[in-house]
Write the structure tokens for this entry.
Amino acid sequence: MLVKVFEAENMPDALKKVKESLGPEALILSTRTVRKGMGVFRKPIYEVTAAIDSAAPEIQPQSQRASKQTPPSRPETGQGEITYQQLWKQRKVLDPLEEEIRELKSQIANQDLSTVRGEIDELKALVKQLSEQPAPQPAAPQAPPPAIMSREVAARRIRKPAASNSSSDDIQEMALLRKNLTNYGIEAEAADAIEQYAWETLSPQQMQDQERLKAFYSDAVQSLVRVTGPFRRSSKQRRIALVGPTGVGKTTTIAKLAANLLLQGGIRIALVTIDTYRIAAVEQLKIYGELMNVPVEVVLTPEQLQEVFARHQDKDLILIDTAGRSPKDEVSIAELNKFLGPESATENHLVLAAPTRDSELQTTVGHFGRLPLHSLIFTKLDECDQRGSLLNVPLHQDLPLSYLTNGQRVPEDLIVADPAAVAGFVIQQP
């Protein structure tokens, strides 16, 4: 499929460009108005994204079409027959990432992977060098951070002054600490641990310094969060399944993971979907697979899934897409357990949407906990202002984080969940 973006000063001109470039069979995917230039008087430009099957005989250069007067004919199809591709076009739904994935495929084809690996080795050496440098000494004497700042450990080491016998300054400082943590979206369990640790390590003067407090909060979050690190090639095949509620972005995250790993080079990947419920779900994953030149398998039963594993035993990594399930649908989750239970030897990563309320996220993890869960992946971080759930949920559920996503671009909007990245998302200006 050929996808192109056209720009013009008005919509009729944009549509004219589409027809001249792609022909009358072109499918309009999306339209929007963008502003280009600088200043408040930027001129609006109409942007139209259109596509057409690249295998269609009518795709010809403009000069050749102009020399032929006979208009291209539509391919004949049988009455009553319909394919996944026709369903996709009738719905007029095509992920806007397709064009970027196409560009990514081109980059992979033309990339000198030895050069990329060399650059990655240089970055690793730089990170190692930085990690070996001695940490700067704090201005005031400060105890080393504990390995885990649980409320119990903090309570044994220091007792926060009670409001009944505290000065007005102490009470104000306590209120300021709690207000800041609340503004970050950090809830009671994590907030209590951080607040206790603040009373142990910060002086009254430091508690009045907002910048010092913000740095302290960041260090505290990094001390509390657990992460798995990125997916890597190993001596044994890894089978990674993404599970979770409907609409959290599992299929898009699968594409981001595959594209990101392919860019690193030297890894063989296969894509599998057991999502046969949504219209065009299979076709969507097949489009990703075609653009990235990786095989895609459709599985209907647990037995077929094991057959796919055997058929692709030469692959380093198998990424498995699943249908969205309601956390309250115990029957569907039990059915999913037949595919991805302990005997399947899969790593199950629960995908959660960051804008969801913490109470609902906790419930979701509890219900999907019937599956053996390996880690949590949070998506849609760009759609919420408070991101305290990145700390609240993993800490309460005792699960590590593996990846974060903060947009729809492939593969740019995929972030490995390391402690510093998590703290950067959680600790913002109130």
In short: The chain has three domains: 1-65, 151-224, 238-426. The two ends are 46 Å apart (CA to CA). The longest strand covers residues 27-36.
